[in-house]
Write a structure and sequence with these properties.
434 Repressor (Amino-terminal Domain), 7 helices, 0% strand
Length: 112
Amino acid sequence: MSSIAHTIGERIRIYRLKRGFSQEQLAELAGVHPTYIGQLERGEKNATMETIEKVSLALEIPLSELFQLLGGRQEDAPNYAYLCYEFLLAKKPKEQKQLYRILMEVEDYKSI
């Protein structure tokens, strides 16, 4: 399956776990079959926009959250900004804040 389907699926899984939902609970809230949620999370299914919208509503997140920073340029070198975004997305807000503070301290230290 495409890398976009894989990325969207990973984001769905991250937000589902942040909400403390099982795949079955999310499926019920979104009105889809539980095995379908698993297939989405693994990037095995290309969901329709309607289904993705149902899932985002069930997760109580804007649809844009699932698509943010997708479709960037393809290069041989890793896109570290994108990798950092994906890393931070998986963290809780308190952890995100702490990691941001660490980055700012490193940046300040470089200025000395």
